[in-house]
Design a protein that fits this description.
- The chain is an all-alpha fold and about 300 residues long.
- The chain has one domain.
- Helix content is about 80%, strand content about 0%.
- The protein is built from 13 helices and no strands.
- Helix 2 (about 10-35) crosses helix 13 (about 260-295), helix 3 packs across helix 13 and helix 10 (about 185-205) crosses helix 11.
- The longest helix has about 40 residues, at about 260-295.
- The N and C termini lie far apart (about 60 Å).
Length: about 300
């Protein structure tokens, strides 16, 4: 592996991948601003970007911690309701799932044979998908929860805790529905698609950095990207392990030996992770500095 990393990698493509990754993060920050503006705030792009990157780096510490962290950062520095920000984050995730769903459908239609081959070669994943969709524990749990809510609804409504939850839920709803009041819906949709296009290209251009993947087609890149994306949603820090496995298995469908698939997955994931770490650490340092400079320039603070 060492000889491949030192002699056989075209790092110009790796740097292009890094650049595309930066564009995706900037685009995500810009899209978030469009969701926040209907709440009566116009946060600075710098603060939004820093919050997004801090969220990413927190996800490397604890899965799903990033969403809470980025909302906490924005709430502190832009004086926006935390609950409303959580609502906007939920809307973001809904749109991300919609785009990922569309990309997945495109992948299944164009690469159906490879998808079936992948599931046949990985029966554990196939069975997990089936069990998740038809889990008796999930279904019975939802039914029990619904029955309890119906039976205890009157008592619940009268409690102080419920009134507090109702207020928070109202803020959640406000944040979630902020998408209805976006002034520039075209730009919002553009960024929603652009983010995922950059994610895809970030992976695909990395193919050209290695002799053993440079001849793979864009559709092979699409399959690898989609499978890797599902690996990323696994409840582990940064998709470590799960992303590598899904990427290696996807590349194997196109004739890439496991050893080479592992090398590609290691390099591509390491580059993505280092980018997040570097930009995240810069954001942690820059965020208070940028905002202290802003306060110093604010005539109201003099």
């Amino acid at each position: 592996m060492k000889s491949i990393l030192t002699n056989d990698v075209n790092y110009a493509w790796i740097w292009l991948s890094v650049f595309l990754g930066v564009l995706s993060h900037i685009s995500r920050a810009a899209r978030w601003r469009y969701l926040i503006e209907p709440l009566g705030h116009k946060p600075r792009l710098s603060n939004t970007f820093f919050a997004v990157m801090i969220g990413y780096i927190m996800n490397l510490v604890l899965p799903r911690m990033g969403e809470l962290s980025k909302c906490g950062v924005m709430s502190k520095y832009e004086k926006i309701s935390f609950a409303r920000l959580i609502g906007t984050m939920i809307t973001e995730r809904i749109f991300d799932l919609l785009v990922l769903g569309m990309v997945t459908i495109l992948m299944v239609i164009t690469q159906f044979g490879h998808v079936i081959q992948f599931l046949n070669e990985n029966p554990d994943i196939r069975e997990k998908l089936k069990s998740l969709a038809f889990s008796p524990y999930l279904i019975s749990g939802l039914v029990i929860l619904l029955v309890l809510i119906i039976v205890l609804w009157r008592k619940i409504k009268k409690s102080t805790l419920f009134r507090k939850i109702e207020t928070i839920a109202s803020h959640f709803k406000e944040g979630i529905l902020s998408v209805r009041y976006i002034k520039n819906k075209g730009a919002f949709i553009f960024h929603s698609l652009f983010i995922w296009l950059m994610y895809y290209l970030m992976l695909y251009v990395s193919f050209f950095a290695f002799d053993f993947t440079k001849d793979l087609s864009p559709l092979a890149g699409l399959t690898t990207f989609v499978m890797g994306s599902f690996g990323m949603v696994a409840p582990v820090q940064g998709g470590i392990g799960a992303w590598h496995f899904m990427t290696r298995e996807s590349l194997a469908l196109y004739g890439i030996p496991y050893e080479n698939g592992i090398i590609f997955a290691f390099v591509a994931h390491t580059i993505m992770t280092l980018l997040v770490i570097i930009l995240g650490l810069i954001s942690v340092v820059a965020l208070p500095f940028f905002n202290s400079q802003k306060r110093a320039q604010d005539p109201g603070n003099k």
